[in-house]
Amino acid sequence: MSKVSETPRIIIFDTTLRDGEQAPGASLTHREKLEIANALAALKVDVIEAGFPIASPDDFEAVKAIAGSVQGPVIAALARTIEKDIERAGQALVPAKKRRIHTFSSGSDIHLKSMLKMTRAQNIERSVRAVKFARTFTDDVEYSAQDTTRSDRDYLVDLYTAVAEAGATTLNIPDTVGYAVPEEYTALIAYIAGRIKVPGIVFSVHCHNDLGLAVANSLSAIKAGARQIECAINGLGERAGNCALEEIVMAIRTRADALQAHTDVNTRELYRVSRMVSRMTGIAVQRNKAIVGANAFAHEAGIHQDGILKERTTYEIIRPEDIGIEGAELVLGKHSGRHAFRDKFSRMGIVLSDEEVERAYVQFIALADKKKHIYDDDLLAIVRDGFDAVPNAYELDYLHVSAGTGTVPTATVRLRKGAQVRQDACCGDGPVDAALKTIDRITHIHGVLLEFSLQSVSVGKDALGEVTVRVSFGTETVSGKAASTDIVEAGTKAYLACVNRLLFNRARQGKAACPRGKA
Ligand code: KIV
Ligand code: ZN
User: Fold this and answer.
1) How far is the CA of 178 from the centre of ligand 2 (A)?
2) Is this model's pTM higher than 0.90 or not?
3) What is the residue with the minimal CA distance to atom 1 of ligand 1?
4) pLDDT per residue over 349-396, tens digit each?
5) DSSP run (H or E) holding 192
6) What are phi and psi of 328, to 5 degrees?
C-alpha cells in the first residue's frame, strides 16, 4: 500500500458560496460571504466558487471582494455559456491571483429541449465558443454539462471532447438531479474520462443529494479517475443539497487505505467552519449529521460508554480533535474582563471591531447574570444574535407574554425602529404565536412560519435555548436564529431577524434579476 502522501491528491472545490447559497432561505450578506471565504481559505480548500456574478450586482461585488482579499485558493466564478455572463465573471475575478471561470450548459435532451431550446449540435457550438471566450480572461477554465446522469453518454463524450479541445482544463460531470447510484456513476466517469484524449484534463464531479447518495457517488468517482470533488459545507445546496465537504474530506482521510487518495484540507478547521456557515445561513445542522452534528461524538448506550472510557477507538473512528472540537469548554465568568473576552473570540477565529466588542460584552454580562457558566457556544450565540450582519430595521424593546392553563395566551410587544417606538398586543394559540402576530401587526408584514426548531446551545437547566425559524413572506423565504435563556424571547427575536433580513433583501438592488434557477 502506498504512503498517503504518495496517493493522488483530490482537489477540493468548495461551492458553499454559490450552490450552497442557492439553498432555500440561505442568502448571505457581503460581509458574511467574505468571512466564510476567509474561513475556507484557512481550511485550505483548493478552489472557492465565490458566486455567480451575472446574478446580481451584489453577487458581482461579493466575488470581486473575495477575489481581491482571500489568499491561497483559486477563486472561481460561475457563468452560463453566454458572453455577457463570462465577461461579468472575468471582470469580477480580475483582482484574484489565481482565477477560474466555470462555465456551464447541459447535456441531457430534456434540458436541451425543454429548457435551453437548443439542438445537441447548437449546444456543442455554443459551449465551445464560451470556453474559448473564457480563455481570453484566464487559462483556468472549467466546463460543466448539467444533468449528465440522464444524458446520452456518447453525446457527452462529443461535447466534452469539443470543449477540452477548445481549452477547458477541468471537465466537471455533474449529477445535477442526484439521480445516480455509485456503480453507475463510476462507470459514467470512466466512460467519459477514458475517451477524452486531450492531455492534462482534470475530471471533476458535482453530486446532488436527492437520494442521499452525494458523498457515496463522489467517492465512487475517485476510482474512475475523478481528481476534483465539488462540495459544500454542511452539504448545503439546491434542494437536498450537495456533497457535504466535511463528510467527503473525513471519509478520504479516515479510509485512505481503501480510497488510495488524500486531500490537503486542514481538518481541524472543519467544525469551526461548519458552525460559522450554520450561524450565518440560519440553517441548523441536524443533531445526528455525520462529522459535525451534535451527536456525532456522543455515546449514549452503556456498553458504548464503557468501551469509550476503556479505550476510545472501541467506538470512535475519528477523534473529535481531528475536526477541531475541543469539547464544550468552560470559558468566561461574570468577572472576566474585556481583554479576556476579546482574546477568547479571536481564538475562536472571530475578529470583532472595538464597537462590536463593546456590544457583545454588554450582552455577555447580561447573560452571565442569568446563567452561571458561559461556554464557547454561548459566546457564538451572542455574536450571532447581536451582530447579524443584516442591519436591524426593527429591534425588540419590550416583550411580555401571559400564558398558562386556563388563560388566553397574550403578548405585548414594543419594537424600536430608529427613533420610533411602536407597541401593540395580541392573543394567539400560544405565547409564541401571540408574540409573532403582534410583530405582524406592528410591522404590517405578514409572515407564515414554516419551521420552528429549538435546541439547547450548551448544557445545564439554565442553558440558552436557540430557536431557528424559517418564514415565508409571499415569494421570499428567509431563515433566522436567536438565542435566549427564555425560549419565547428567542422565538420572537428569531422571527424579527427574518423580518429584518426580508427588509434588507428588499433594499438590496437588482436581486429580482437573479437567474438562479439556471444553475
Ligand atoms: O448541479 C449542477 O449541475 C450545477 C452546475 C452549475 C455545476 O450546479
Ligand atoms: Zn449543483
Assistant:
1) 9
2) no
3) 176
4) 677 888 888 888 888 888 888 776 677 777 877 876 656 556 789 999
5) helix 182-195
6) -75, 85
